[in-house]
Input
Amino acid sequence: MNKKCGLLLDDRYFKHCIRQNSPENPKRLHSLYAHIQGNFRDRFYCLEPRRASLEHITAVHSTFYLEQIWEHSTRENPYSYDRDTYLMEESFATAELAAGGCLEMADNIMAGEFDRGFALIRPPGHHAEPGRGMGFCILNNIGITAKYLLEHYRLSRILILDFDAHHGNGTQEMFYESPEVLVVSIHESGLFPFSGKKEETGSLQGQGFTINMPVFAQFGDREYTFLVGRLLQGLVEQFMPQIILVSAGYDGHRDDTISNTLLSTEWFAMVTTMLRQYAEETCEGRLMYILEGGYNPASLKASVIATLESLGCRNTRKVGVLDVKRASALLHDHPLQRYWTIQ
Ligand SMILES: [Zn+2]
Output
């Protein structure tokens, strides 16, 4: 039995739900949760979420925004606040539980109960800005967690990797002027929310601590592997993070029609192995995954399971370690090689 990896899931995450159809709904997770409860629970250190306190939420979100959520949650039309981000009676409590689940996991990692884990929460968070929710996101779970780690544990070097198909605009905005949080986002160019250009690199003291890698539609495993393998590895070695947080979005999967990128299920296992190695080399293995997007329940389920297999196994070498040199050699003659050289 391996208790070195944490796992957090909770049926209360299904309470944020409306009758109208939305890609972000509890059905995303039903089959995945059922599979985990039957197969994974014994192999992981399972946690119960708590509600994030207002103190921790308002460390990144404005009170004016929270008042807007409360007001719109009681309205008859769940889309009165935003055309994507529905709000109903249980929305804020569910979002508090999502952010609080991440804080619970962060506490356990910092206490050394385990060194890595996956918070399988919803609603997602990375589009939520300090003063505005959008793109299915109400509270920015990863932003609240990073801020909590900075303030409560006095960390000063946190790496956030966001590989959701969409740019994590909310997370970027929260740490745009901070040299303490290195925010790296790999996302499809030209997709919602249409930000995350490579020229967006941070400002003031945070200049250089925001890194955007917009990729073309049709990019798949080898291109993403090159980016994570070569570029991110260099960044990790320079920044020497104290913990790596991952905005784990699975909507870049080839079977997820919300994006045009072509990642395979196996890629999500592969990137996890790479990140585990980076974490072991720099921050005693501290690595925390937080669920973001993923709107095809079948590919989301398969890819999260692949991630958990990779995250939970005792020895990273057993998962099939990626040969980065071989991956970049494969890309040597790629017609888009010049694009990366410019990056
Ligand atoms: Zn997304």
